[in-house]
Amino acid sequence: MRLPQPALLRHPLRHRSQNILVVDHPLALAVKVSLPRPTVQGGPHDSDCYAGRQYASLMDMDIGPA
């Protein structure tokens, strides 16, 4: 699997490249993309408790085979 580079994810995720961490999980055939949270999880200003919405723009991204 070809991993997406943080620089390519910068615009869809609206974050600076240096704040995006991409981790390969080959046994699960998965890629984890981590971003800093804008607020404390579960806090009074958290509108996305599980932080799933921030990745919606990546759902249609084709990373193709290795």
What does this structure look like?
The chain has 66 residues and is α+β, with helices and mostly antiparallel strands. The protein has a domain at 1-38. Helices cover 12% and strands 15% of the residues. The protein contains one helix and two strands. It has one helix at residues 6-13; strands spanning 21-25, 30-34. A two-stranded antiparallel sheet has the order 1-2. Strand 1 and strand 2 form a beta hairpin. The protein is globular and about 40 Å long. The chain starts with 5 loop residues before the first helix and ends in a 32-residue tail after the last strand.
Structure characteristics:
66 residues, alpha+beta, globular
Low-confidence stretches: none
Strand order of the largest sheet: 1-2
Oligomer: single chain
Mean pLDDT equals 76
User: What are the secondary-structure elements, in order, as H or E?
Assistant: HEE
Shape: globular
Q: Count the E strands.
A: 2
> Main sheet?
2 strands, antiparallel
Structural class by helix and strand composition: alpha+beta
Number of alpha- plus pi-helical segments: 1
Give the helix level as a range of percent: 10-25%
Write the layout of secondary structure elements.
Blueprint: H1 6-13, E1 21-25, E2 30-34
Care to give the gist of this entry?
The chain has 66 residues and is α+β, with helices and mostly antiparallel strands. The protein has one helix at residues 6-13; strands at 21-25, 30-34.
